Structures are given as structure tokens and as C-alpha cells.
Amino acid sequence: MTAVPLPRQPSQRPDAGTVSPSAANAPGAEIRDRLSARTPSSATSGAAPEITPVFALKELVARLNREQHKIQDLLSSLGFALRSFNNLNQFLELIPLMASRVTDSDGGALLLFKPNGQVRLERLHCQDSRWCQDIRKALETATRQVTASLSPTPAGESIALTPSAIATLDHQVSHYLGADVQLFGTAILVKNTERGRLYVFSRDPQYGWTETRQKLVRLVADQTAVAIENDELTVELRKKERLDRELEIGAEIQLRLLPRQCPKIQGIELAARCQSANRVGGDFYDFIPASYDQIRSKKDGGSEWGRWSLAIGDVMGKGVPAGLIMTMTRGMLRAEVLNGHSPARILQHLNRVMYADLENSNRFVTLFYSEYDPKTRILSYSNAAHNPPLLWQAATNTIRRLDTLGMLIGLDADTHYQDAQIQLQAGDTLIYYTDGFTDAANQSGERFDEENLTQAFQQACQQCDHPQTILEALFSQVQKFTGTAHRNADDMTLIVMQVQATEL
């Protein structure tokens, strides 16, 4: 008679299968049979002495102890394999063998459910190798029947077998193995989801699926689930480690693309810092010699009296995509600067070149571009919707915003930008910044807006005598506002440019 198992539901742990009438061969019944057994009386000439109830009981207890030790040794070996094997396939090979050994059955089979809904015979063990071929054919036929009944799914999508499909699988397995096979099956549960079935079977008509044997099969199934989950966690960990390494490489490349140090420009002092919220950010700044002659004349950045371009930008978004666009923008801008056009024309050309790529990525770039001439102290600039730099004029102790009309880079291919100029004086200080400063929020959700930045900048200019100390003061003010335990959600980039009192 076949014991057809009920599906083991993920939400609870019910009995994993029904038991055939032969399960009545429990230890209690066996003890009663042994105690009631009698041999011919010892009075009969040449006969063995009578087996007493005490002797029969001792013999039975000794046999049960041997069986218990054997089961403990097998389960201990399975636990050791779970801890030792790094290869899941090696561990799965042991499962049908262990399940049949601990239950004294004829064989076992492990069936796993694939993400696409396919049911596959993973491992099979039979005591009789000649019978094993018939068992394999029966199980493969049953799995094909169940897989064929499932609705097809698009490639790449995962599907979980429903309880009715699992019940059908149990029925098909029992049907194809035949009524003379004593069968028991239980679920392989991983994170409360059934990922397979473990079947154990016997051809012995007197074989019974006692409660103890069912528990042992469930125990082996649980060990299998742990092994599968550990393997999946290991795979995820390795993916994460590879991703972390790729991010580290990306962050390292991005860091190398930023200026290693501020250039020496006649009559001004510079300080700059880019603080990314993630490993790879979308902010960038750059100092670019305005002509080929400057690049050739000095390896460290050109002539002190030559014109220099100062640019700061921000890619909408964060992480690796923003970092890639930032790298592309930097390269194109550097190439465009050497053409010698005005700031507005440079932004216009950059926008037209980058428009197609940015439109496809649904990302945009804000960019403030300026050129400084040390001989005249004139700063020429144009803005592509970036945060306007703030100019502190030392003579009047006032703050002025440097801005022009212009759309985001990548928003409209036909956008026109405007040129503007300003005459700087000795002592004037200018800051270029990204919205990471003004959007920085404290625990109450309040933003460190442009007004707070303007006040902090004005105080820093009055109290500090060097661009680096001004930079440190502004970063400190934002950190104080947001709180030391509150991590900024956006990249923060700042350039401080101060005009010195050098005679021309």
C-alpha cells in the first residue's frame, strides 16, 4: 500500500504525509509480541531453555539502542557535511542516501523546484541498482507531467508552485511508483517557501511509516533547506563583494579625475573639496587651462598668468549612473574649452553634443562655467541652471549672486545661454557650490537653504583670512546644522576663490 503524503504548507508544519496500515508495527506492538513469544519447555529433551519475558525485553532494548546510535551517527555525519561542504551539489548527493539509511528504507529521491516552475529530479538513491532505473523513469515521468501542466512564464521571471500543483506532484509520484511501494514525502522549506520535495520509499509490504521515521525524514529535509539557503546567501554575498569592488574602482577612478590640487593662478588663492554621499557621486569640479600653450608650458597646470576655466556641475541622480555621466561631461567640457569660445558658446556646444545621450538616460546636468583672466581680474561666466555662485565684495561687505539665464544640459538641444562678466577686486571672495549644501536637512526636516549659506559665508569671509579656512568653516556649519549623527543624502562640493592684493 502506498502512503500518499499531504503537502507540507509553508505557513505551518503539519503532518507531511499519510501513513499506511503497516505503521501499526510500532515498538510497543513489537514488545508485546516478543513478550508473548514462548519456546518449547526446557523439560523437552535437548531443547533450548525457555526465553523469559525479561530476556526478550533486554534483547529488544539493546536492539533499539543500536538503532538509536546508528541514527545519531548518521545525523551527526549529515551535520558535519553541512558545516564542511562548500559545494551544494556535494551535499545534496548525501540527502537521499541519508534519508533512506535513517529510516531503513529502500531508497530516497530529492526533487527541487526551479525558479521558472520546472520540477527536476536532483538526486536519487536506491539500495537495488536494478530497481533504480525503474524508479528514475517513474519520477521523471511524474515531474514532466507536472511541469507540462504549468502555464508558461516569460523568460527571466520566477514562479512558485501552488499547493495544488504540489499535491498533483505527490499524486503523480505515487501513481507512477505503483501501489506496492510504501511512499512518504515532505517539503523542503526555504524562507517559508517550498523549494522541493524529499521522497523516501520501500518495497517491503510490512514496512510502516511510523511517527519516528516521519520525523527523521523531516529532519533531513530541514538540513537540506539550510544547505540551500546557505548556498544562496553565499552567492549573494559574493555578488555584493564584486559590486563593492566595482564601486571602489569607480570611486577611485572618479577621485583621480578630480583635480589633485588647486592650480597656482596669479593673484588668487583657491580651495576645493568634493564630499560624496555615496561611493560614486554625481558632483564634479574642474580647473582647466584655457589654451594648449598653458598645457605644454607646465605639466602642473600651465602659466600663472594664463587664463583659467573654473567649472562646477551636478548630475541629477546618485550612484554609478550619475558618476558615469559626470565623467562624460568632464571629458567633453575639457575638449570644448580648448576651442577658445565664450562661456555661453561652450555651454551651447556641450548641450548639443550631450543631448542625445542624456535624453536616453533621463538625466540632466547643471553646470556653471567661468573663465578668469589674472591680468584684468575679469571673471567671465555662463550658467546652465546651476546654483549661482556667491561673491563677497570686500569693499562693501555685501553678497552678490552670479547668474545668467540658461536651461539644464540635456533638456533642450536648442537652448541658448548668456554671457556675463564681473570685475573682481582685491579681497573679493567667491564660492561655487552644489545643492548638497542648500538641500542638507536636519533631523526635523529643515533645509540649510541659500539664506543660511549666505549668512555663514559672509561671517566666514569676515573672520577667516584664507580660502581653506573659509571652506572648513562652511562645511563645519552645515555639519553642525544637520547634526553629527545625520548623514547628508546628497553630494557636497565647494570651491572657494579669493582675490589677493597683489599688484598687477
Offer a few descriptive terms.
504 residues, alpha+beta, Beta-Lactamase, Phosphatase 2c, domain 1, 2 domains, 5-stranded antiparallel beta sheet, 12 helices, 43% helix, 19% strand, elongated, PPM-type_phosphatase-like_dom
Explain this structure.
The protein is α+β, with helices and mostly antiparallel strands. It folds into two domains: 21-39 and 49-236, GAF domain (Beta-Lactamase, 2-Layer Sandwich); 258-499, PPM-type phosphatase domain (Phosphatase 2c, domain 1). 43% of the residues lie in helices and 19% in strands. The chain has a five-stranded antiparallel β-sheet. Strands 6-7-8-9-12 form a five-stranded antiparallel β-sheet. Strands 2-1-4-3 form a four-stranded antiparallel β-sheet, sandwiched between helices. Helix 3 (88-103) runs antiparallel to helix 6. The radius of gyration is 39 Å and the shape is elongated. Residues 4-45 have low confidence and may be disordered. One of its GO terms (molecular function) is phosphatase activity.
